Amino acid sequence: MEKEKTNEKSQGLSKVLGPIHIWALGVGIVLVGEFMGWNFTVAKGGSIGSVIALWTVAMLYVMIVMMNTEMGSVMPEAGGQYTMAKYMLGPLAAFNVGLMLVLEYAMLEAADVLVVGQILESLNPNVKALPFIILSLLVLTYMNYRGVYATLTLNFVITAVAFVTIFILLFSTSFYDPQLTLINLKKMTDGLPYGYLGIIAAMQFAVWFFLGIEGGALAAEECRSTSRALPLGTMIGLSVLLIGATTTWFVCSGLVPAERLGESAYPLYDAALATGKLYVIIALFVGTIMACLASANGCINDASRAWFAMSRDGLIPPIFAKTHPKYKTPYRATVFLLPISMAFAFTGMLDQVVTFSIFSALMVYVLTVIMMFQFRKMYPLGTIERGYVAPIHPVPALIAAVLIGMTLLGMYLGYWINILGGVAFYFLASVWFLKRRLKFIDKSQFLKAGTQKWPKPKEL
Questions:
Q1: Nearby residues of 157 by Cβ (< 8 Å), 6 or more positions away
Q2: Helix 40-72 vs helix 81-88: angle between axes, to the nearest 10 degrees?
Q3: Cis peptide before 125 (omega within 30 of 0)
């Protein structure tokens, strides 16, 4: 049987992005986690468990970002962690990582529009959220269809505005004046009701504060200078998120009772309502909507790049490897993923959608740790030019491995069925790939792009 053609001609992606766009992509995707989702940590671990989980997971992401930035700063193609898996671990691992990335971002995109719908319905019970969900996804998909530069430039603006609204809320509480402050942590918080096990359980949703910051690596091929834009944009973005996450926990925990905060669909907006100040309520309404749209916008970008990269390499049918002749975007991949995100959004199950997105991300992180060891083995320091070098290797990888294990344990405590479902799904997908797709891959061409730009590895 003839091998399927997997080398359909596709134009290269436009190299137009700088550090500001990588920041906008990473922070734009993640910032929504400060407007919703993170507060489930309070339900799982209590108020103190929530903030300890936040700082612990922040350490995990520092490690992940260091590893991703070192490997991503020298990657010759789009695809981020997928491309890393392609060169470090081979076709099967690359297929799984690519699929995990697509579903991670498709689920996150669905969660974003779910929150948009719920916050609109909160204004008036007669408001129907479905038309707004569909319209939001259509508009954002069209923007990504037209071009990445304008899309991420807009993302920078709306992400910055959303971030500023968090501090409008903070200063409206007069937190700096003990006599006037609205913040009352002693009354509103509930400590550590489930003990240390509650901290581990809370780590699952603490991931939501940072999930997606590593996605900047997916735009590596479109950077004017990958070795500059990727490290600078990602590191600044992570610093911004650390500040924003701590501020978010402090304000929400001081304004909203723990039992209500732990189940809110939009905790920052609820905190704004608790101030009773109209300008703050309006600001956080706008900020929540903008954060959700910026995140969904970035998710469309990242998911389509992963799907495009998989198609270009023949891991899925080559029809999605075509780029637009005018806009130089992976337009087929962008359009194809739209109904998938819509389907997840229509379920209305926010915590389930969030959980599957987090599980997919954690699986990518597990493989990232393995890839970091393989990368240093194949390309020791001094054998290939890096835009960034992760310090004290292998310490970051080992710390990340321990924290990933703790987070998965926390997920198992509350969502073990979801974990089993996720494992079953990726297992069946792997069987399909091995039985139906692997035979179409020309292994002599699979790594061609990389071997043309990288020196020969020390060890294969």
A1: none
A2: 60
A3: no
Rounded Cα distance between 217 and 230, Å, is 7
Q: Which domains does the chain have, with CATH numbers?
A: 20-453 (1.20.1740.10)
| Cβ 383 vs Cβ 177: under 8 Å | no
Q: Are 411 and 355 in contact (CB under 8 A)?
A: yes
Question: What does the alpha-carbon distance between residue 61 and residue 56 come to, in Å, rounded to a whole number?
Answer: 9
The neighbour count for residue 43, using CB atoms within 10 Å, is 22
The secondary element (H helix, E strand) that includes residue 374 is helix 350-378
Q: Is the torsion defined by CA of 409, 63, 268, 360 positive or negative?
A: negative
pLDDT along the chain (460 residues), means of 10: 44 69 80 88 95 95 89 73 88 94 89 79 74 83 82 81 94 94 95 93 91 75 72 84 94 96 91 95 91 86 88 89 86 92 78 86 95 92 84 94 95 88 95 91 64 52
The answer to whether 434 and 91 have CB atoms below 8 angstroms apart is no
Round to whole Å and give the CA distance between 101 and 29: 13
Instruction: Give the model's pLDDT for residue 254.
Output: 96
Q: What is the pLDDT of residue 235?
A: 81
Cα three-residue angle 352-370-33, rounded to 5 degrees? 30
DSSP string over 287-308: HHHHHHHHHHHHHHHHHHHHHH
Task: Note the pLDDT of residue 271.
Answer: 96
* DSSP assignments along 202-258, one per residue: HHHHHGGGTTTGGGGGGGGGGBSSHHHHHHHHHHHHHHHHHHHHHHHHHHHHHHS-H
Give the phi and the psi of residue 80 in degrees, each rounded to 5. Answer: 55, -125
